[in-house]
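Here is the promised in-class demo. Please do not try to memorize the tokens; focus on the logic of going from shape to residues.
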């Protein structure tokens, strides 16, 4: 079977991009698989970043270049982005007709109409529509001098959403599936992300968090909790913050550095696969607090839709202490193979309990390692084929 997968940001490292590459690797063993990239991407870059074998996967690049290279802020930003997406979709849609199965790995590209006999859309969470929020933020004068013309123009360029045209919608968690039904009115199949087996860590006394350097990940809040633990007598433990950062994250990064000053904190930016493996190997506890202080019903976009790095930590024998919300709740059985906590005080208390009890830490670490097998590459491949089969896409 000839299969085409498209992810617009394969040159950027992230959980969604790994999910796409995991699909390409799993399907490529029995099919003729091609990864479509918007920018040139080296096979070795993806293999090194995600620890995958993509040797049987083909790579092709789009001719598309954004019509609007520099998009201004404001409501017109959304309009110009829609024009870019429409031009992108106009190139990709005819290309899909040359394949038996097209998998669109980015739900923000639902404007792409699938013309292949079979198709699937990967939606980790329905894209946010910011028009209403931005409109309400303007005062009366701006609403009618700046925003009102936009509303007239936007009516001429209604973005198409072809999500319902795909044979299957795939997502990463039950949390995300519920919101796809709520916001799009579509059923979705859950295929949990894949995490490979790895050498067990636990060699050093460190608490680790791995994520993008962005306020959504609550890194400053975790630093506050760690600082409190140190003040109350926690000794010999280091907090390691490992993450990817771009120019847009520089201000937040400066805040993190100021907050970490004087504390036993290591900041590791843009680590490669080998470096990240070493960081897991030197840690015993894993923190992930995305969703803290968020109203999940009002702002589901700010929750963690799954949380692949906590599972990667569990696969290395680290004990996860995670925020009790979003997709994170589907990873851990509270008190069995980690902890789910509801706030700062509980995060501090559970962590102090683990740091003070090597025996308890060891038991939970073994249980976390066993739980990670539920998210193995073999389980991912079986779930992927089963979901596509139920939708008639394979």
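The designed amino acids, position by position:
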């Amino acid at each position: 079977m000839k299969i085409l997968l498209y992810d617009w940001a394969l040159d950027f490292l992230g959980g969604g991009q790994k999910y796409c590459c995991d699909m390409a690797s799993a399907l490529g063993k029995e099919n003729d698989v091609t990864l479509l990239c918007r920018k040139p991407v080296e096979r070795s870059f993806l293999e090194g970043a995600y620890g995958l074998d993509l040797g049987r996967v083909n790579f092709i690049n789009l001719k598309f270049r954004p019509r609007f290279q520099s998009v201004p802020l404001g409501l017109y930003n959304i309009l110009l982005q829609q024009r870019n997406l429409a031009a992108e979709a106009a190139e990709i849609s005819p290309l899909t007709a040359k394949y038996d199965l097209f998998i669109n790995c980015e739900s923000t590209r639902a404007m792409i109409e699938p013309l292949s006999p079979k198709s699937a859309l990967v939606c980790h969470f329905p894209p946010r529509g910011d028009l209403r929020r931005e409109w309400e933020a303007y005062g009366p004068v701006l609403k009618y001098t700046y925003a009102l013309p936009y509303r007239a123009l936007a009516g001429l360029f209604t973005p198409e959403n072809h999500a319902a045209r795909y044979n299957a919608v795939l997502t990463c968690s039950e949390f995300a599936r519920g919101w796809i039904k709520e916001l799009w009115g579509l059923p979705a199949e859950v295929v949990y992300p894949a995490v490979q087996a790895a050498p067990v860590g636990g060699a050093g006394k460190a608490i680790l968090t791995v994520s993008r350097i962005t306020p959504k990940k609550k890194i400053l809040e975790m630093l506050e909790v760690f600082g409190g633990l140190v003040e109350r007598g926690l000794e010999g433990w280091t907090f390691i913050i490992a993450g990817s950062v771009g120019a847009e994250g520089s201000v937040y990064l400066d805040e993190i550095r100021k907050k970490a000053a004087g504390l036993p904190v290591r900041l590791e930016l843009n680590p490669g696969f080998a470096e990240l493996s070493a960081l897991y190997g030197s840690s015993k506890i894993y923190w992930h607090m995305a969703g803290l202080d968020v109203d999940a019903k009002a702002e589901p976009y700010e929750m963690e839709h799954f949380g692949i790095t906590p599972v990667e930590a569990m696969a290395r024998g680290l004990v996860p202490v995670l925020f009790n919300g979003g997709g994170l709740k589907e990873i851990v059985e509270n008190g069995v193979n980690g902890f789910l906590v509801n706030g700062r005080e509980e995060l501090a208390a559970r962590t102090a309990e683990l740091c003070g009890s090597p025996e308890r830490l060891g038991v939970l670490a073994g249980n976390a390692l066993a739980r990670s097998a539920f998210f193995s590459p073999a389980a991912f491949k079986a779930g992927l084929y089963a979901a596509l089969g139920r939708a008639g896409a394979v």
